Amino acid sequence: MRALHSYDVIPHLPPGLERLRELANNLRWSWDGDTQALFARLDRGLWNDACRNPVKVLAEIRQDRLDAAARDQAFVGHYQRVCDGFDAAMERPSWYHEVRPDDHETQIAYFSMEYGITECLPIYSGGLGVLSGDHLKSASDLGLPLVAVGLMYQQGYFRQYLNPDGWQQELYPENDPATMPVELVTDDEGLPVTAVIPFPGRDVTVRVWRIQVGRVPLYLLDTHVDSNRREDQDITHRLYGVGHALRIKQEMILGIGGVKILRALGIQPTTFHMNEGHSAFLAIERIRAKIEEEGLDFDTARDATAAGNAFTTHTPVPAGIDRFGADLVEEYFGHLVPRLGISMERFLDLGRLAGEEQPADLSMAVLALRLSAHHNGVSKLHSQVSRRMWCDLWPEAPCEEVPIRGITNGVHAPTWISAEMTSLFDRYLGQRWRELPQDEGVWGHFDQIPTTELWRTHERRRERLVAFARGQLRSQIERRSGSPAELALADEVLDPEALTIGFARRFATYKRANLILADLERLHAMANDRERPLQIIFAGKAHPADDPGKKLIKEIVHVSRREEFRHRVVFLENYDMAIGRYLVQGVDVWLNTPRRPKEASGTSGMKATMNGALHVSTLDGWWAEAYRPDLGWSIGGGEEYADPEYGDRVEGSELFDMLANEIIPLFYDRGTDGLPRGWVEMMKRSMQLSCHRYNTARMVRQYAVEMYLPAHDETQAQAADDHARARALAGWRRRMIRDFPGVSVLSVDADGGGSLRVGDRQVVTCRVQLGQVAASDLMVEVYHGGVDSHGELIGADRMPMELAEQGEDGVAVYRTDLACRRSGRRGFSVRAYPFNDDLPHHLDTRLIVWG
Description:
- By secondary structure, the protein is α/β, with parallel strands linked by helices.
- It is built from 30 helices and 28 strands.
- The chain has 4 domains: 20-91, no CATH class; 108-409, Rossmann fold; 414-694, 3-Layer(aba) Sandwich (Rossmann fold), CATH 3.40.50.2000; 743-850, Sandwich (Immunoglobulin-like).
- It is 40% helix and 18% strand.
- The strands form 6 sheets. Strands 1, 2, 5, 6, 7, 8, 9, 10, 13 and 14 form a 10-stranded mixed β-sheet that branches. It has a 6-stranded parallel β-sheet with strand order 17-16-15-18-19-20, sandwiched between helices.
- Helix 24 (547-560) links the parallel strand 16 and strand 17.
- Helix 10 (244-264) packs across helix 11 (281-294) and helix 26 (604-610) crosses helix 29.
């Protein structure tokens, strides 16, 4: 019988416990162990069944349990302590207010396609989402004036299970907002706040949900609105929907809809951060608003908005960038482009590289790079790779000068460091490690932690991991109706005292999850050594359309079922943040084997090393800059192989040699007290570095100082006096595009000989044909550095030349004094380019001429 009416009945919070709902609905609990312990104390079984979701606990708990808790003085005392801690955290003076105490104008909007904040909010797929979640947590800790924007998926990312043959299957359970820490945003009349996005032939309405992440609000857009067509309601159905048509619609909702919904909420950001290219359409919407609401032309609106746009690229290969065909772009933007006052061809060119064969696709990364003034990669190596990838956007500029800075990723330490390790840190480092993890002085006392206590704490986490893995494996076997013998075996897998290696991540082929399976005979000997055994725990998902990734999972599962590996190799299904926490907090070694340079950063290794695991990785991503021989191990020396299969054989062999000759002996080298002192000393050094340098408190501060605040200041300057500077800059750009082709470097002379000594100086003189460009609009520089065997400048610096004289024939003479400060083969060239103090970067015009 179908119900005529449906409604929710929720328990009544007893007097004195009214703030439980407030605590549950602020995701600060996701990184505060004391708050989690409070909700677990209400009903531990329900807490575990609810996937550590306090909102669901309050929705389903029996009234008598709540009433009993209100009478329990110990619980009430715990509750009061949590409330006091919550209030202190929300009101505590922050880093941001200390550095900008009178700043009431800055407002940062952070856009991301996914957010991994807690496993009970399944709107993330992997590393990008978890990084976004950690970004918000540290923004809250630092008091940054930041709001975040994303999408509210009805199903989110899939849940993984394996069939009897080990082949990945996908389930898409529905998200129920009633049992999630989300709230529908309504206006003063109780109606949902909405925004309208123009689509071809129709409008699509979005509503918005709010999640409070400490001090930071996260707004999630949802097209599941009755007035929308069914196909449009499904735009926010699944994370990363399949097909280019669905993806362009999702990215229009995120970028265009996100800007519109913030405006509907009365929020006026001065800085917009595009976390990956998915949200690049926000730049188009900002330009449109400037044109239609403030009467600017396209060029002026572009300059005025680009000054406040920041873009982070996470992708080290062009194939990983979202690209949309010209026909699809024309279909979805044909009605919008005329409102920008430009042609469709010029609109498409905003997302294309110069010289691409037409009709070329529109690249979201290129669009973001062209329409933002601040750009970064997510590690030092990745920024170098990105500069090479996108060098063609700055024609004639040396790749090392391409304005893509490196801001290395980090992780939110309070979220990922285990409760046991947290307690140890509190005892020996005080509370400052939580509040100021980026402060090197906090970690200077790390050696005070006794070796015995650190090792015993780590051992307890390994024991917890083994118990957890056994429980997970048993559940997996039960789900596929395994035999009693298989269930019995699940209780015997793994050894809580054996060297434990963790490998967990997205199963893309370049990450080479099976590299450690390359020599099963050697692996068998190591795994089953009676005195020094080794064991491996795998976890991870392949993209639903990635059959090669699924084959890797199947290969690992089949190995784990072989008799010689049944107790030593385990694959845990449905990798999520909960499984990730157990792994990074309990393994001895974190294994990372990507083919260099395809790992942009990687953050799981940071989480593991903060908990005492030692890192074994190729020199890719963050490990390329963090590695030292006394911190962990490097597979290879940073080589990049033209033949990937050959590289796999070389590095696979090196991995096994390293395990046999270095890692296993160091782990099992015990003193009379049973402690592996050499291992623990390496743990200490690794933990100290990771906790200090690779946390999101450092990362978000770096974003604030290097990108957010400059973007805000530039935006304010551009907007002053009715955008006078933006208008002037746009007009200046147009003149440079028209007149700069007439500029040329006619001659270059130096008074030095072919051989100079360190300390010598030489006068460099050049003659420049100015054409129609004023000398005041030109920068002429000596570009000098080392010279490689091909005659190319390497490690070059730039030195401005002074205008010495200017003739009536339009020829100007520039001169500078160049000092010889280093020995070796050196050289220089001379170049000229348009320069304006209002440019966000000295090569921003992308116009340059060399001598």
